[in-house]
Amino acid sequence: MLTNQAISSCLYVLLASHWCILMISLLDVVCFYDWIYPAPWNSVKAAYLFCRYYPLAIAPFHLWGSVGNHEERVCESYYHVIFAFILMLRTYAFSGRKTRILVVLSIAYLGLVGVIIWVLSKELSLAPLFFLIKRNACLAISDEPNIAVLVASTLRGKTLPAPIAYHVGMISELAAFFDCLNILVVLWYWVRGRDTFGPLGKSFLKQGLLVYVIMIALNTLAICAFLSSYLVHHGLASSSVFAYILPSALVIRFLSHLPHSLLLMLRRTASPTETTLRLEYSHMINDVLEMIAVDRCPEELSEGFTLSISTDAEAQH
């Protein structure tokens, strides 16, 4: 039964989730200014910014529809889509930008987005609140029963206690399948070329796979909750609301715990600074001098060392 407590809980969850989005974005300002902002504009930078900050862009629209008071005709045309595009981009890049991998991941991604649009626009209906009051938040419910609960209740000769939003649980199931597909692709290419990976590839495996595993675990918990015969869901405040929050939070944790040497390596590879170039030239000169010194006798080395000291002293005066 839809109660005021359920509606209030839904609104609190939405407000808390979007507050987390705002805080995560603020924590990412320093990283964005140091590493992303100086990079030239290209397709990779545009895709990263879209995947990274689209939750912040849709947050005002989501809050406007889910928290504010609106008329029924306004709510009938309101829904949003949750993307999993960033996982596909990371896996595609790790596989060496293989076209066949991009095709497989794109098909899986389009299937996930298609199911989300179908569920949110066709299978969810507005909560029957406008019969009581004229204006209210745009909240949706699902009147379809869970298949597992329906079969169990039929075998036991019992009736369903209330409708269960199994359509919303389907989103978590497909999201978990998409995460598993990404992990399989990453592991396949790691097994084939693990001997050729440098520090960057190994760090990606260590940190990136952890992100995938965490997301699969959370989606699995959501699936178990929706398939449980002891819980009743209306689809008001689904755990899928955090599906576009947790990846950003895990990315922030991943960047904040990267080894300092790895960050320096990334910076030197992407856009070496003048100081970095000077250090590299200095190391090259030192290596050459050491190679020359090996072929010289100790007397020549001592004379050269004394001569260099006297030359430096005269230069200072």
Task: Pick out its properties.
317 residues; mainly alpha; 2 domains; 2 strands; extended; disordered C terminus; membrane; transmembrane helix; transmembrane
Helical/strand content category: mainly alpha
**Largest sheet report:** 2 strands, antiparallel
State the share of residues found in helices, binned by percent.
Answer: over 70%
Beta content: under 5%
Oligomerization status of the protein chains: single chain
H-E string: HHHHHHEEHHHHHHH
Strand order of the largest sheet: 1-2
Number of strands: 2
Q: What is the mean pLDDT?
A: 60
Task: Round the Cα radius of gyration to an integer and report it.
Answer: 28 Å
Q: How many helical elements?
A: 13
Low-confidence stretches: 77-83, 145-164, 230-241, 254-268, 304-317
Number of domains: 2
| Apparent shape | extended
Ends distance: 90 Å
Transmembrane segments: 12-35, 47-65, 77-94, 101-120, 164-189, 209-230, 236-255
Keywords: Membrane, Transmembrane, Transmembrane helix
Layout: helices, strands, pairs:
Elements lengths: L3 H24 L1 H8 L6 H25 L4 H4 L9 H10 L4 H25 L1 E2 L13 E2 L5 H10 L9 H28 L5 H29 L18 H11 L3 H11 L3 H21 L3 H19 L1
Antiparallel strand pairs: 1-2
Helix pairs in contact: 1-3, 5-8, 6-8, 8-9, 9-10
Keywords: Membrane, Transmembrane, Transmembrane helix
